[in-house]
Specification:
The chain folds into 2 domains: 10-74, no CATH class; 87-213, Glutaredoxin. Helices cover 38% and strands 21% of the residues. It has helices at 37-45, 47-74, 116-132, 148-158, 171-176, 203-213; strands at residues 10-12, 20-25, 29-33, 87-89, 95-97, 106-111, 138-143, 164-166, 183-187, 193-198. The strands form 3 sheets. A 5-stranded mixed β-sheet has the order 8-7-6-9-10, with helices on one face. It has a 3-stranded antiparallel β-sheet with strand order 1-2-3, covered by helices on one side. The protein has a two-stranded antiparallel sheet with strand order 4-5. Strand 2 and strand 3 (29-33) form a beta hairpin. The chain starts with 9 loop residues before the first strand and ends with a helix.
Length: 214
Amino acid sequence: MVQSFAALEMKAQLTTGDLEKPVTCRFFKISFALHNDRDMEKMLNNKSYKLLLTISVAGLLLAAVVAGALLTDEDKGPENRVAPDFSLILLNGENFQLSAHKGKPLMINFFASWCLPCREEIPALVKIQKEYEPKGVAFLAVAIDDAEEDVKNFIERLGFTFPVGHDKTGAIKEAFGVYGLPTSFFISKESTINYFHPGGVSEALLRHELDKLL
């Protein structure tokens, strides 16, 4: 999912002497010239100028507030949003349906066989899986941007015990907005994304996030 948001364009140039002093933003543009202190005093006492200046400042503040609201809304990330439902054929031939796991905590790990940090986090993932599966937590690993044969060799060589599926089309990756590897999602019993973590995970992080879901 490609997120796009408005960026506030604001530019101020202040000089001295007889040079023009423009103040510009996306919504308002004022340009005025100050020649000497007497001219400045006259302009400051001019009601029209004061009104124009007030409107311009208000416009800048409004633009900043609007841009800030847009940035805040788009920068929330996936947390507290309903996890996209999907169906995936696992490498063992079984079918995984996310919606079928509603009512139990779920961790999804996106990885690839060529990803070095993915390899480094495998021992922690395997250990935590053994510790938390008896507590009712479900685990899934999704291989992306990879060849299926390489994925199979990877999980066999490293002893990766997660149920693994191959996102061949990239649809699941796009739905979750995954752009770096590894990336892990911690999904609540209500199927909402409680937390997502880009980068490798540790045992401490895994325990901390999974305990919040129990």
